[in-house]
Amino acid sequence: MKIDNAIKALTFDWDGTILDTTDKSIESHICFAHKKNLRIPAKQELKKLWGLHWPDVIQKIWPEIDSDKFIAEYINFDKNVDFLLINGSLETLKSLKNSGYLLTILTSRDKYSLQAHIKKLRIPDDLFSFIQTPENSKYVKPHPNCFQETLAFLNKRQINRKNIIYIGDTVYDYEIAKHVNIDFIGVLSGSHKKNDFLQAGLEERRIVRSISELGH
After folding, report:
1. Residue 2 lies in a domain
2. Do 126 and 198 fall within a single domain?
3. Which portions of the chain are predicted below pLDDT 70?
């Protein structure tokens, strides 16, 4: 997909867009539910909620439990799961940066696990000019106003909303982009399917299989 000449910055979601986490994470949550004798949700039930803030997902699936305690125990349970970059994503990101685009990340993943992934996968430290996580956000994804810190960073560099594309794998990402009047590209490498995006109103031409199709 060719990128419009007016675009100067590309903001990416992380999980399911750059890092291939969706299926492994869902399977891991189901395994953990077995271990804790919790209700076992269907994979599709979890997948539909993927992209929401993690504590909100837990509360929707298991409303009877303490989400903070669940998260603390789950992190220890899940720490040995290895995740890989989505095929071709790193090469594409490097190519986009070399083409002059400013790259940023907007994610609901905490900064500590995100930085651990970046280090483990040997992603260059200077690849992304700005990374917004819950720790440096007033509003956490997918809150409609969660884009404000990224926008502030880009505005200081004379990059306005017409010069930005947000790329993500869920309808929640698309709704965020619509709320702040930013162009959006949906990728099918994560949680939501093509029909999910179409039903939400995204044009088919704005949907790609993965970020590796960007810039071509």
Report:
1. no
2. yes
3. 216
The domain spanning residue 181 has which CATH number? 3.40.50.1000
Q: 116: Cβ–Cβ under 8 A, 6 or more apart, which residues?
A: none
Q: Is residue 49 part of a domain?
A: yes
- Tens of pLDDT, residue by residue over 118-130, are 998 999 999 999 9
Name, in order, each residue with C-beta under 8 angstroms of 195's C-beta and a sequence gap of 6 or more: none
Same domain membership, residue 16 and residue 30:
no
What is the Cα–Cα distance from 145 to 141, expressed in whole angstroms?
8
Rounded to whole angstroms, the Cα distance separating 35 from 46 reads 17
What pLDDT score does 215 carry? 80
- Which residue range(s) make up the domain with 113? 9-20+83-213
Structure confidence at residue 51 (pLDDT): 83
Say whether 52 sits in a helix, a strand or coil: strand
Alpha-carbon distance of 155 to 23, in angstroms, equals: 36
In sequence order, the 6+-apart residues with CB closer than 8 A to the CB of 106 are 11, 12, 13, 132, 141, 146, 147, 150, 166
Structural tokens at position 53: 């803030």
| The total number of structural domains that make up the chain | 2
